[in-house]
Amino acid sequence: MAASRIAGTGRYLPARILTNDELAQRVATSDEWIRTRTGIRQRHIAAPEETTSDLALRASRAALAAARMSPADVDLIIVATATPDMIFPSTACILQDKLGVSGGAALDVGAVCSGFVYALALADKMVSTGAARNALVVGAEIYSRILDWNDRGTCVLFGDGAGAVVVVPAERPGILTSHLHADGSHRGILCVPGQVHDGRITGTPFLHMDGGAVFKFAVKVLADVAQEALAAAGMTAGEVDWVIPHQANIRIMDATMKKLHLPHERLVVTVDMHGNTSAASIPMALDMAVRDGRIRPGQHVILLGVGGGFTWGSVLLRW
Ligand code: UT7
Predict the structure, then answer these.
(1) What residues are labeled active site?
(2) What whole-number distance in Å separates Cα of residue 158 and Cα of residue 196?
(3) Residues 6+ away with beta carbon under 8 Å from 49
(4) pLDDT tens for residues 16-58?
(5) 3-class SS of residue 316
(6) Whose CA is nearest to atom 17 of ligand 1?
(7) 37 CA distance to ligand 1 centroid (A)?
(8) Neighbours of 127 (CB within 10 A)
């Protein structure tokens, strides 16, 4: 067996929904500004006692159930997150313990909003070569804890959640191609420039962003990396049934579709309901479109990630 496929998907969103109108009571913004500039109507916010691994656990259980598998079937857990439970151990190790298993490999991937695409590409390589039997790949985030709630330029954009998939060996490839990229020279336009030093937090432990620079960068690389995937697979954009880009801003997604000459109808959109959930956004959107029947067997789906680092990448799937 030299290939892998996704056997099940799952997602979990914290119960608390924060609307634009509620945000407008805290900072100088409005539902109208947020909706027209970003497409976001609401986001989910984790409860104070909830951790990233708790969100990951709920999404993982849903994905394992969909794949008709148990945690014991998994010997590789990769969690993509920029908001881990703690500095170490990894959120993947904590998740493994909460799933009640041990012995397999578990690690976190730090590629910010591209994290899930990075993690899925790595899992595909591990499973398709036989280095791992079955992999659980999760994107899980609690961005509400790294936002400055007085900064209207950033606090309106993000939300919390988790999405997961189970990757299994396959005779016929489900994961067709993956391409990963980074350019660290752009690290300053989206970062949380804080660190723990001598028992204190130094620098700024809040998300900092140059929104305009991120917007331009994202539109360029999302279309480029989609074209790269299509060329590698010998496909045209018209053969792609569903595009699932990182859900940051509906205007970024629409601009990417325009560059690919694809209609808005082939886009899976969750940013209106979830806001930007970083590494969780793509697996949650995938799960939603699989469960509501939009994604059907045999269809082609392209996942497009972009995020802090800067990082970007694609995974092309045949469902
Ligand atoms: O995962 C990747 C993470 N980040 C992103 O994807 C974000 C990418 N960037 C964006 O989505 C957009 O650049 C934003 C939504 C952040 C901003 O949209 P924009 O159309 O680029 O607006 P802008 O930055 O040009 O700001 C326009 C105005 C400014 O006022 P002045 O200087 O023109 O008077 C801002 O101060 O809007 C103001 N503004 C706001 N007004 C009301 C900024 N944030 C808000 C707000 N409510 N929340």
Answers:
(1) 113, 246, 276
(2) 24
(3) none
(4) 999 999 999 999 999 999 999 999 999 999 999 999 999 999 9
(5) strand
(6) 211
(7) 7
(8) 26
Per-residue pLDDT tens digits for 148-176:
999 999 999 999 999 999 999 999 999 99
Distance CA 280, CA 116 (A): 7
DSSP assigned state of 261: T
Q: Evaluate whether the domain defined by 176-318 bears CATH number 3.40.47.10.
A: yes
Question: Does the beta carbon of 154 sit less than 6 angstroms from any atom of ligand 1?
Answer: no
CATH 3.40.47.10 domain span(s) along the chain: 3-171, 176-318
pLDDT in tens, 118-157: 999 999 999 999 999 999 999 999 999 999 999 999 999 9
65 CA from centroid of ligand 1 (Å) = 40
Count of residues making up the chain: 319
Take residue 1 and report the two structure tokens written for it.
């067996």
Distance 211 CA to ligand 1 centre (A): 6
- Average pLDDT of the chain is 97
Instruction: State pTM to two decimals.
Output: 0.97
Reference 187, options 57, 9, 17, 310; nearest CA is 310
Alpha carbons 267 and 45: distance in angstroms, whole number: 25
Domain 3-171 of CATH type 3.40.50.2000: no
